[in-house]
Design goal:
Blueprint: E1 2-6, H1 10-22, E2 26-30, H2 33-42, E3 47-51, H3 59-68, E4 75-79, H4 84-92, E5 97-100, H5 105-117, E6 127-130, E7 133-136, E8 141-144, E9 147-149, H6 153-164, H7 172-178, H8 190-203, E10 211-214, E11 218-221
Parallel strand pairs: 1-2, 1-3, 3-4, 4-5
Antiparallel strand pairs: 6-7, 7-8, 8-9, 10-11
Helix pairs in contact: 2-3, 6-8
Length: 226
């Protein structure tokens, strides 16, 4: 499942991102209000964690803008402002929950999980299917043609990203930024190695092949030939 963190403090964002990833979530991060709104309106997320005070656009304005556009994705607002009136304004702006800083990560995780259990109509699907390949985003399991596929956590994230972009060419840069959180090319073959291992797991013994290399461009997941 995918979580968007909109938080300008890099240490806080890194701490949240690490904890959520270790809990099985795919995480995107934005450091400014405008960037956060762009992510929120151009991608699909199961939940968002939004800091109230942000450069460029405050968190409440982001939430109000999303709600005005009909986006009902669950939002947990984070803020150092903890008075009753502050919490009320956060909820009236469209937030689904409000957590005051400082907080324990275990409480934040429990609140996110509670938001997901509510089954908001804006939440993304809990499974993804492309051809006979299927991911269960809650159980973190995969299967093809009904046969379970054993994936390591990074392989699961890689396959989830490819399946969410099924039929599209996914570049190395996209994979580095969205699956490995690298914003530069580390000049390693890490992507090639993981794609090769993933291809063995999802294509070997099955037909047709689904994970295609697009020469000079990247990769494409599709039941159709490249």
């Amino acid at each position: 499942m995918r979580i968007l963190i909109i938080e300008d403090d890099n240490d806080t964002a890194a701490f949240l991102s690490k904890g959520l990833k270790e809990s099985g979530f795919a995480v995107d991060r934005a450091a400014t209000g405008p960037d956060g709104l762009h992510y929120a309106t151009s991608e699909t997320y199961d939940a968002m964690i939004v800091d109230r005070m942000l450069p460029g656009m405050d968190g409440l304005t982001i939430v109000q803008t999303l709600r005005a556009k009909g986006n009902a994705t669950p939002v947990l607002i984070l803020s150092a402002l903890g008075q009753v009136d502050d919490r009320v304004r956060g909820l009236q702006a469209g937030g689904d929950d409000y957590l005051t800083k400082p907080y324990a990560f275990s409480e934040l995780l429990a609140r996110v999980q509670a938001l997901l259990r509510r089954g908001s109509p804006g939440a993304a699907e809990t499974s993804i299917k492309v051809g006979d390949l299927e991911l269960d985003l809650l159980a973190r399991t995969a299967k093809r043609a009904g046969k379970p596929i054993d994936l390591l956590p990074r392989e699961f994230r890689l396959l989830e990203f490819l399946m969410r972009h099924a039929g599209q060419v996914v570049t190395r840069t996209m994979l580095l930024e969205r699956v490995w959180d690298y914003h530069f090319d580390p000049q390693t073959n890490v992507i090639d190695v993981h794609v090769s291992r993933l291809r063995q797991k999802i294509d070997k013994g099955f037909a047709p092949a689904m994970l295609h290399t697009v020469r000079g461009a990247g990769y494409r997941l599709s039941p159709e030939p490249a």
